[in-house]
Amino acid sequence: MSDKSLYERLGGYDGISEFANNLLPRLQADDQLGRFWKNRGEDGIDREKQLLIDFLCANAGGPVYYTGRDMKLSHKGMEISESDWEVFFGHAGATMETLAVPQQECDDIVAFVSGLKEDIVESK
Ligand code: HEM
Predict the structure, then answer these.
(1) Best of 22, 35, 71 for a ligand 1 pocket test (most atoms within 8 Å of beta carbon)
(2) C-alpha angle 90/94/97, rounded to 5°?
(3) For 80, what's the count of Cα atoms within 13 Å in the CB-facing half-sphere?
(4) 83: domain range?
(5) Does residue 33 fall inside a structural domain?
(6) Which residues contact 6 (CB under 8 A, 6 or more apart)?
(7) Domains in the chain, number
(8) How close is the Cα of 78 to the center of ligand 1, in Å?
(9) 44 alpha carbon to ligand 1 midpoint, in Å?
(10) pTM
(11) What integer pLDDT is reported at residue 114 of this predicted model?
(12) Is the CB–ligand 1 distance for residue 81 below 6 Å?
């Protein structure tokens, strides 16, 4: 294990932005998940992507202040299911593979995101 923060190990702000830039279009293009982004304005989607980047940077130990809402509040009412969650994880894995994120960092991302499940998934 390295002493460096996950933020540093992921390549800092640029590395995490690249992660979000790679992941979001996959989610939007997915047959099952696409509904969550359907008919939303481009600027709203850009704003949400910025918040995702800030959230990840801040939680990975970066010098960023997250100004968005917490995970429970921001996903409440979307009825994100267990199956949606699995599909999401498949895309996150594909993004990590495409960006050649090393195994330790993949494990750290998976552990962090898994801990958010209870706040995000609300229907079976
Ligand atoms: C199946 C999984 C997920 C789906 C379908 C999903 C979908 C969405 C959608 C549609 C929004 C926009 C809400 C709005 O504009 O009001 C949103 C916001 C957000 N999501 Fe997710 N999300 C998922 C998982 C995650 C995960 C795992 C994270 C964190 C790693 C995350 C972080 C965020 C953040 C930071 C916001 C912005 C919060 C704010 O507007 O204040 N989401 N999500």
Answers:
(1) 71
(2) 140
(3) 23
(4) 10-120
(5) yes
(6) 60, 61, 105, 108, 109, 112
(7) 1
(8) 10
(9) 12
(10) 0.96
(11) 98
(12) no
Residue 49's pLDDT is what? 98
Whose Cα sits closest to atom 16 in ligand 1? 74
Residue 1 has pLDDT above 60, yes or no: no
Average pLDDT over residues 59-78: 98
Tell me the C-alpha distance between 77 and 120, whole Å.
Answer: 10
Asked if residues 62 and 5 have their Cβ atoms less than 8 Å apart, the reply is: yes
For residue 2, being part of any structural domain is answered with no
- Cα–Cα distance, 114 to 63 (Å, whole number): 23
Task: Establish if 5 belongs to a structural domain.
Answer: no
74 Cα–ligand 1 center, Å: 7
Q: Which two tokens stand for residue 29?
A: 């293009």
Domain assignment present for residue 113? The answer is: yes
CB atoms within 10 A of CB 6: 20
- Alpha carbon 121 to chain centroid distance? 14
* Element counts in the chain: helices (H) and strands (E): 7, 0
Q: Check which CATH number belongs to the domain holding 107 and give it.
A: 1.10.490.10
